[in-house]
Design a protein that fits this description.
Layout lengths: L7 H13 L12 H20 L1 H5 L8 H26 L5 H9 L16 H22 L5 H29 L3 H20 L11 H6 L7 H19 L9 E3 L4 E3 L5 H11 L3 H14 L1 H22 L1
Antiparallel strand pairs: 1-2
Helix pairs in contact: 2-4, 4-7, 6-7, 6-8, 6-10, 7-8
Bound molecules: benzoyl coenzyme A (BYC).
The site of benzoyl coenzyme A has 28 residues, from helix 2, helix 6 and helix 9.
Length: about 325
């Protein structure tokens, strides 16, 4: 008897049913082409963010104020490189190569988180990045632990464990500065003022402007919307700022009893689009640095390929 082949619509309906039933989609499962492409886009951009995100803090490793701080920061930056690797591997499981992803980053076809195009000018910025940038990343990534694609979800679980250490190391720097001399407190305030708004932009445009949200929510690639996650971050940050004894950068921040959330001021969306379209303060510098490091690492990749070829030849010779 001839085997019945599902039509494209039937396959899509069965796929959506699996998503609705909270089943994870794995690399060899059937998936709509648009689901695969959307995932490659989001996961690869997430990987690029982790790797480019090493630069602002990496800038401070040699200038950390103590040996202990240096060891902590070094470990944190190395973790970010590891996060990039998990995520590139998750994206590769969808049928794209590492080389293709790197090319898309270096030629500006693929984006990475806007936040990393802001300069890290003071030691206070290292504190603010850990506290606010990793803090915003956690809010987003905790939600992504429940994403529908298995390899992405599992990568998020591991990454979130490390991110909470990152967030705490940043907040601890802020506590020390905020409780320190007036000049140190001023440094903490200045870093908060400069990083607060760009951290809110990490959650992406408003839901009404978000091109990918509707599809990503239907397929459970994203589990919560950009605005809902941003609101969570706004709400959790208010008491943290109060504890530090610093001034809130948003003068419109106000508890709304009815909504059970803080109301807040509007973001500068012109700045957001300028930065994500390549014209932020550090966009060119970040990509140039990546290209240079990638070229300098070419010999390592060549050596690995030569080693693999030798091992393969040896195996073939042994088998003959
Ligand atoms: N920056 O339709 P939308 C870290 C783009 S790293 C740049 O809402 P989506 C860390 C968006 O890509 C953690 N671009 O998109 C590392 C899209 O452009 P394309 C980073 C942005 O995907 C080192 C367009 O705008 N976390 O923690 O549904 C040191 C329309 O947006 C941004 C992640 O990557 C932005 N902020 O939602 C320290 C999380 N926002 O692709 C710390 C994973 C939007 O059409 N990603 N765009 O050219 C996500 O959750 C989602 O991709 C986003 C955007 C919420 C970011």
């Amino acid at each position: 008897m001839a085997e019945y082949k599902l039509t494209e619509e039937e396959q899509e309906a069965a796929f959506q049913q699996r998503i609705d039933d909270e089943q994870k989609i794995e690399p060899k499962d059937w998936m709509p082409e648009a689901y695969r492409k959307n995932l490659i886009r989001q996961i690869s951009q997430h990987a690029h963010s982790e790797v480019i995100g090493e630069q602002p803090e990496g800038n401070w490793i040699t200038r950390s104020p103590s040996l202990r701080r240096k060891a902590v920061l070094l470990a944190k930056v190395q973790d970010e490189a590891g996060h990039g690797l998990y995520l590139y591997s998750a994206a590769e499981s969808l049928g794209i190569s590492r080389a293709e992803m790197i090319e898309a980053l270096q030629t500006g076809k693929a984006k990475y988180a806007s936040i990393f195009n802001y300069p890290s000018q003071t030691w206070g910025d290292v504190g603010a990045i850990g506290w606010l940038v990793d803090g915003a990343a956690i809010v987003n990534q905790v939600s992504l632990q429940r994403t529908s694609y298995g390899p992405y979800s599992r990568a998020m679980i591991k990454i979130c464990k490390e991110e909470s250490f990152h967030q705490r190391q940043g907040y601890q720097i802020m506590i020390e500065l905020a409780k320190g001399t007036p000049a140190q407190k001023q440094m903490a305030q200045d870093s908060l003022n400069r990083f607060y708004w760009p951290a809110l932009m990490m959650f992406g445009p408003h839901d009404s402007e978000s091109a990918h949200s509707a599809k990503s929510m239907k397929w459970k690639i994203k589990r919560e919307t950009n605005d809902d996650l941003r609101q969570k971050f706004i709400d959790q940050t208010v008491p943290q700022i109060e504890f530090l004894g610093l001034e809130h950068p948003d003068k419109a921040i106000k508890w709304n009893e009815e909504r059970g959330h803080y109301d807040s001021g509007e973001l500068n969306w012109d700045e957001f689009y300028k930065v994500i379209n390549g014209n932020g303060h550090c966009n060119r510098q970040r990509i140039q640095h990546h290209i240079k490091a990638h070229e300098e690492g070419a010999w390592v990749r060549d050596a690995q390929l030569a080693y693999n070829a030798k091992q393969k030849a040896k195996k073939a010779a042994d088998a003959a």
